[in-house]
Amino acid sequence: MARKLDDVMAALPKDRKKRVEDRAMELATLKDLRHAAQQTQEQMAAALGVRQDTISRLEKRSDMLLSTMRHYVESMGGKLELVAKFPDRPSVVIDHLGGEVTLNKRAGAARRSRVAA
Locate the HTH cro/C1-type domain: which residues (predicted)? Predict the structure, then answer.
């Protein structure tokens, strides 16, 4: 059974939890994130309802859908946020991350509407 990241973190001593949190800020890949959460590819596969080889391929991708990445992170008990940073303006958190986008055509014009994820 897959363990939730929150449960693993709660069980750690305070100093170890701080080191893990500091290291998490430096992580660059999904594999690094999975290792920090002490999850195996098999455990992630079970949590996501896919096979282990799918997790392996996913972790090797350099480009993926935001909805896929969100689902991966949420399966570990986390939350994925996308932040747009600008040089002369405050940062903006983009909501509805990875939600489905549908195109509705009316009067010959395409209009986008988001479906909440």
Answer: 30-60
Instruction: Kindly report, residue by residue over 31-85, the tens digit of the pLDDT.
Output: 888 888 888 999 999 999 999 999 999 999 888 888 888 889 888 888 888 888 8
The SS3 call for residue 13 is coil
Domains of the chain, with CATH numbers?
A: 5-115 (1.10.260.40)
Q: What is the pLDDT of residues 20-33, one digit of tens each?
A: 777 766 666 888 88
Distance from C-alpha of 103 to C-alpha of 110, rounded to nearest angstrom: 6
Distances (CA, A) of 65 to 11, 12, 29: 32, 32, 15
Which positions ≥6 away from 48 have C-beta within 8 Å? 54, 55, 71, 72, 75
Within 8 A by CB and 6+ apart from 69, the residues are: 30, 80, 98
